[in-house]
Write a structure and sequence with these properties.
- The chain is an alpha+beta fold.
- Helix content is about 35%, strand content about 15%.
- It has a five-stranded mixed sheet, with helices on both faces.
- Strand 1 and strand 2 form a beta hairpin.
- Helix 2 packs across helix 5.
- The protein is globular.
- It starts with a strand and ends in a 14-residue tail after the last helix.
């Protein structure tokens, strides 16, 4: 059954079983490989995407549930690494293996959308659901703080994942 939704700002129709996990529809049908398969049970966070502006685990989100909705993947953040979160991740030297980075960055994005100036405790609590095998949690926390500070200083509306389309 065809399912139509907006993927990274573009209308897309995927002709697949509505019970297909969104993760596989994004990777296999739409060809976007930034969203990673980790555990398949919504425990690790590697598959995080935004649906309607909220961070969700795409491995357990059914394709049929996003019909008519806005879905954003890591590819919509910035192709030239100019988003404050991408800059902060680089400046704080966060990635080691890099496998969790999709989930880390999109979870941080949702956190900062909800709370643009979180405390360190709020950052830890907001990010604790995404696992990192390399244990770069202190650098992740520093990068989220760095991004929050950068985004606070930036002009409003400069973020690709903000806007009415994502609400």
């Amino acid at each position: 059954m065809p399912v139509t939704f907006r993927l990274n700002g573009d209308a897309i129709t995927l002709d697949d079983d509505g019970d297909t996990p969104l993760l596989w529809a994004i990777r296999e049908q739409a060809g976007l490989r930034g969203t990673k398969f980790g555990c398949g049970r919504a425990f690790c966070g590697a598959c995080t995407v935004h649906v309607g502006g909220r961070a969700v685990r795409s491995c357990v989100t059914l394709l049929s549930s996003v019909a008519g909705r806005d879905v954003h993947t890591i590819e919509s953040l910035s192709p030239d690494r100019s988003h404050p979160l991408q800059k902060a991740w680089i400046a704080e030297n966060v990635p080691q293996c890099g496998y969790c980075q999709n989930g880390q960055i999109l979870t941080a994005k949702a956190l900062l959308d909800e709370n643009p100036n979180p405390t360190d405790q709020e950052i830890r609590e907001g990010m604790d659901a995404v696992l990192c095998r390399c244990m770069t949690y202190y650098r992740i926390q520093a990068a989220v703080r760095h991004a929050a500070d950068s985004m606070a200083a930036a002009p409003s509306g400069s973020d690709a994942l903000n806007g009415e389309a994502n609400r």
